[in-house]
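can u do me a favor
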């Protein structure tokens, strides 16, 4: 995600070291890189970022292709030359359509970047998957309505979902910010529209959900505050009595009878 203080943003991407990189354009008055980090290790989840194999040529749209496995959790773009309309998942209609935001929502795992005019842009996707058969990982993209407002927002639609990605798309090249913010304790995809050309913009939030096929049916309401740090691997085969005493010796003898 990027947040710039000027109108022209070259874009953002994730490098091979999993760093979030943002780059601004002229007059280069400032840009921020904002990373969204999720810890999914307890679900044996792995994630990877991939760039599109090429760039858009003479304007138009370039796609990364769908995730080979797992789900699309992030989508962004970086301008090679010129400017960009933005980035999104799914297929895209031609500019000039009566409703340019009537995105064809097929192939939701596909990350796309749209170049402006005859410029070139590259798309970057992040995909996450898990080999755990008991875990179901699903993601959805929620699109805001087209708006001429200076700020366009979109949230997840279920309390069980968490937001992993946020991107923005404009009718012209007026999006200079796409980031996830807390608004009244709710994760919100926020997209800024510079309104320089009086055109509309949309915000796209990617929201995911993890569920397990084997949840604990009756979890305790009073978990042990001080569990045994390391239980023995060789328990006593013949305990002293069938019913252990409730009042064990606090100070056992250091030299027991042989």
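np, heres the sequence
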């Amino acid at each position: 995600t990027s947040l710039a203080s000027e109108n022209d943003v070259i874009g953002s991407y994730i490098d091979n070291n999993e760093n979030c990189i943002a780059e601004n354009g002229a007059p280069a008055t400032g840009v921020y890189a904002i990373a969204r980090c999720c810890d999914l290790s307890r679900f044996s989840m792995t994630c990877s970022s991939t760039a599109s194999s090429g760039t858009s040529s003479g304007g138009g749209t370039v796609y990364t292709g769908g995730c080979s496995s797992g789900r699309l959790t992030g989508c962004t773009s970086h301008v090679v030359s010129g400017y960009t309309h933005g980035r999104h998942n799914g297929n895209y209609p031609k500019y000039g359509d009566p409703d340019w935001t009537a995105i064809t929502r097929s192939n939701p795992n596909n990350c796309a970047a749209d170049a402006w005019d005859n410029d070139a842009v590259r798309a970057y996707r992040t995909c996450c998957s898990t080999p755990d058969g008991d875990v179901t990982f699903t993601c959805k993209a929620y699109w805001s309505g087209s708006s001429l407002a200076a700020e366009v927002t979109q949230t997840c639609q279920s309390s069980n979902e968490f937001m992993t990605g946020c991107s923005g798309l404009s009718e012209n090249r007026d999006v200079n910010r796409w980031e996830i913010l807390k608004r009244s304790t709710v994760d919100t995809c926020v997209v800024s529209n510079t309104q320089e050309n009086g055109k509309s913009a949309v915000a796209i939030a990617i929201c995911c959900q993890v569920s397990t096929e084997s949840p604990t049916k009756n979890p305790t309401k009073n978990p042990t505050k001080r569990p045994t740090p390391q239980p023995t691997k060789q328990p006593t085969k013949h305990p002293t009595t069938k019913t252990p005493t409730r009042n064990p010796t606090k100070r056992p003898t250091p030299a027991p009878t042989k």
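Residues 93-100 have pLDDT under 50 and may be disordered. hope that helps!!
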